[in-house]
């Protein structure tokens, strides 16, 4: 099915409680795979919102690299502005704006660093240029010119030569542990379908995994 036909069918069919997966991670998987198969630009691009200690929110686009039942993982410099903000306030929100197919997924939760072993496992799969870039960029810091950045890249290339590039100790992954996920399906006349999954944690002392409450929201 081409992009326009998929969008038209999705908007016509809409979302109902009956056709939602009870697990929001599996529901996300369905929509995410559809975005990939339809060749949407940067289907893993997600707008990340963090809040500074002053209360000022900041947004930027980061790339989803891994996800499973534990949450959604992206990578960054631990000295970047967003990392500093997340250390102060670990509560974040992200948005997947798949507007070409009239869909959005909004996720709220908290972030936690993944282990160095997990970060290394991903780092070694990155293109060599991206590995050099991680070592070269003092992310979010003021620099006088691009020439200084390019000089740092040249320095790192010389330093590592043709050998393996190690994982920087100032770079790695964060996992967003979701507490709520909202699936938005566009419909005609702005009567969109919205469903909110909210985490319901087990009673203290019980071993059952958290379950999810599903509610329809007005558009």
UniProtKB/TrEMBL annotation:
Highest taxon in the source lineage: Bacteria
UniProt-listed GO biological process terms: pyridoxine biosynthetic process
Pathway noted in the entry: Cofactor metabolism; pyridoxal 5'-phosphate salvage; pyridoxal 5'-phosphate from pyridoxamine 5'-phosphate: step 1/1; Cofactor metabolism; pyridoxal 5'-phosphate salvage; pyridoxal 5'-phosphate from pyridoxine 5'-phosphate: step 1/1
Enzyme Commission no: 1.4.3.5
Domain Pyridoxamine 5'-phosphate oxidase N-terminal residue range list: 35-157
Cofactor(s) of this protein: FMN
Residues that, per the record, bind substrate: 65, 122, 126, 130, 190-192
Catalysed reactions, semicolon-separated: pyridoxamine 5'-phosphate + O2 + H2O = pyridoxal 5'-phosphate + H2O2 + NH4(+); pyridoxine 5'-phosphate + O2 = pyridoxal 5'-phosphate + H2O2
InterPro entries on file: Pyridox_Oxase, Pyridox_Oxase_CS, Pyridox_Oxase_N, Pyridoxamine_oxidase_dimer_C, Split_barrel_FMN-bd
Domain Pyridoxine 5'-phosphate oxidase dimerisation C-terminal: 171-219
Annotated positions binding FMN: 60-65, 75-76, 81-82, 104, 139-140, 184, 194
Keywords tagged on the record: Flavoprotein, FMN, Oxidoreductase, Pyridoxine biosynthesis
GO molecular function, one term: pyridoxamine phosphate oxidase activity
Cofactor mode of binding and number, as noted: Binds 1 FMN per subunit.
Function recorded in the entry: Catalyzes the oxidation of either pyridoxine 5'-phosphate (PNP) or pyridoxamine 5'-phosphate (PMP) into pyridoxal 5'-phosphate (PLP).
Subunit structure: Homodimer.
Record-stated family: Belongs to the pyridoxamine 5'-phosphate oxidase family.
Protein name per UniProt: Pyridoxine/pyridoxamine 5'-phosphate oxidase
Gene: pdxH
